Amino acid sequence: MAPEKTDPEGDGVANTSNVSEDGVVGAEGEHDPYFEPVVTLPEIQVKTNEEEEEEMIKLRCKLFRYHTSETPAEWKERGTGDVKILRHSSKKTVSLLSESYDFWVATCRVLMRQDKTLKIRANHYITPFMELKPNCGSDRAWVWSVPADFADEEPKQELFAIRFANAENARLFKEKFDEARGIVTVATVAAQEAEETEETEEQKEDKSNKGEVEKKGDDGKELGDKGTEDVTKEMEKMTVKADQKE
């Protein structure tokens, strides 16, 4: 116990209960000292692999996955969090003979992360053949089939169901999903046309080269026949001369 201090201006005892050791006056227990950090760590930016993609929509949802490995098969909750539809566009150049053609290749994907942990629960590309269907007649839930989902790092065929807080969010999600399907369909058709054009040009070039080779072969054949005729004539002349000498 600390000894009592005498008040120099009075006869009583000075009250030091609200005076801290560093001279800061305050209520007892409120002193919060600051300590300089021993090690200073630089800030690190963590990449999400979404930096080059355009966010078409972002909504809060609850995701379900249909488990077929169990008997009987049943729906199980996959997670709750934000679902996004992301679009990525890149330019591709195709060289056809002496000319080059540019066309855009667009891909769209569905990405859903779990709250707090940010663990990926759905990650797959949208294809022209995907279609959202109502789930049990609900106006705020959809079901769709995925040929290859990469949420678990390895591609798996999945059947997903998604539920939103209200019908308006469900409608917005379907609109953007269908828009993404259209973007992917147009990009797929453009890529196929470019590939077919490239194959056609290559075939034309092959036929042209083949025709030149055949022409050269015919010319060689004619020269060979002409040479054979000349030799035959010379042999006939030598035969006639030999007969005359006899």
Order of helices and strands: EEEEEEEH
| SSE-based structural type | alpha+beta
Gross morphology is elongated
Helix content, binned percent: 25-40%
Overview of this protein structure:
The structure is a single chain. This protein has 246 residues and is of the alpha+beta class. The chain has a domain at 54-200: PH-domain like (Roll). It is built from one helix and seven strands, in the order βββββββα. The protein has one helix at residues 167-245, and strands spanning 54-67, 74-96, 99-114, 120-125, 133-134, 141-149, 156-163.
Overview features:
246 residues, alpha+beta, PH-domain like, 7-stranded antiparallel β-sheet, 1 helix
Quick overview of this protein structure:
By secondary structure, the chain is of the alpha+beta class. 32% of the residues lie in helices and 32% in strands.
